[in-house]
Amino acid sequence: MSDERFQQVAGQVSRVLDLEKANMAMDEAALLALVAERVAELLECQPEYLMSLLYRLDVLEEKIVPVMRGQSTEPIPQALARLILERQKQRLETRRTVKPRPTDEATDEWAW
Asked: Which residue spans within 6-72 are E strands per DSSP?
């Protein structure tokens, strides 16, 4: 992942998870560790809020369930952090490659 894209992912994840220690000079492994630490904290103290965040971040439920059932080789916080970062990378790539069609009011099918 390019440095610019990584910074965008890091910024988005930092804002959503309220990561105070996030440093834009960190690498992907350090960000993963920081996100995993925050996920562990939320699992312990605010599990409902964590599930709400996963929903807002559009992490697929079918990926979350096996992790929460302990079917992952990684610890739960680490696996959830990895899912969060992977999804944010996917979202960024989609935004980069899929541009919305400009709407022309004259050809808009909903225009009266």
From this structure: none
